[in-house]
Amino acid sequence: MESEPDLARIAATVGDARRIRMLALLMEGRALTAKELALGTGVEPATATSHLKRLVDDGLLVAASQGRHKYFRFASEQVAQLVESLMRVAPRRKAPAPAAHEPIRAARFCYDHLAGSLGTGLLALWLRKGWLADGGDPKQLEVTARGEKALAALGVDLAAARARRRQFACRCLDWSERQDHLGGALGAAVAEHFRAQRWIERSKHSRVVRVTPQGERELRRLGLAEPR
C-alpha cells in the first residue's frame, strides 16, 4: 500500500510555539540537553520532555545518551534547512528594526555552515574568482579546477567533504541578507576549517560568529572585507 507525506502532522508539530523555539535553539549546531532546551524555551522540564518526544517521534530530532545526560540534535540536514526556510518566510515581530551591524547579521552559523554577510560574501567572492560554478540544478554548485587548487591551498579537505553522505555544495538563501550563502558538506568544511585555524570564534550558546584579528587579515588577503 502506497504512503504519502503526512503534511498535517508535521505542520502541527512545528506549529507549536514551544517546539519551534526548541528547533530554533538547535540551529546553534550543538546538541543540547532537555534541561537546556527547557530553559531556552521557558517551560518546565516535564513539559519539555513531552515536546521532545513528539519531535523525536516525528523524525525531526534524534537523542543520544552520554553519562547521565541525554542530548538532542537534528535528525538530518534537511531539518536544519526546514527551520532556516521558516526563518526566511516568517513575518517579522513588531520590534525596533535591528541595526545593519547587528552581530547575527554580520556572521553566524546556519546549522554547520557560515551565514550572514560573511557567508554570502564568501560565496559571491568565490563565484567571481571562478572557484565555484553553478551546476545542472539551480541550487547545486560545483568546484572548478581552479577552485580545487585554491581551496586545497587554503587547507579545505575536499576529499573528506565529498565523502560525507549529504549534498556536496549548494546555495542556501540567507534570511538576513536575502542572498545565497554556501551550504552542504563543502560549506560545513569551510566553516570548520575557519574555526580550526582560529579565523572565527563562536559565541557561547549562540550562532553568532566573531571574526578574529587573524581572521580579518586572512579574509582581506582572500579579497573579502570584514563583515558588517
TrEMBL record:
Signal peptide: none annotated. It comes from the Bacteria. InterPro entries: ArsR-like_HTH, HTH_ArsR_DNA-bd_dom, HTH_Metal-responsive_Reg, WH-like_DNA-bd_sf, WH_DNA-bd_sf. GO terms for biological process: response to cadmium ion; response to lead ion. One of its GO terms (molecular function) is lead ion binding. Residues 1-94 form the HTH arsR-type domain. This is ArsR family transcriptional regulator. It comes from Ramlibacter tataouinensis.
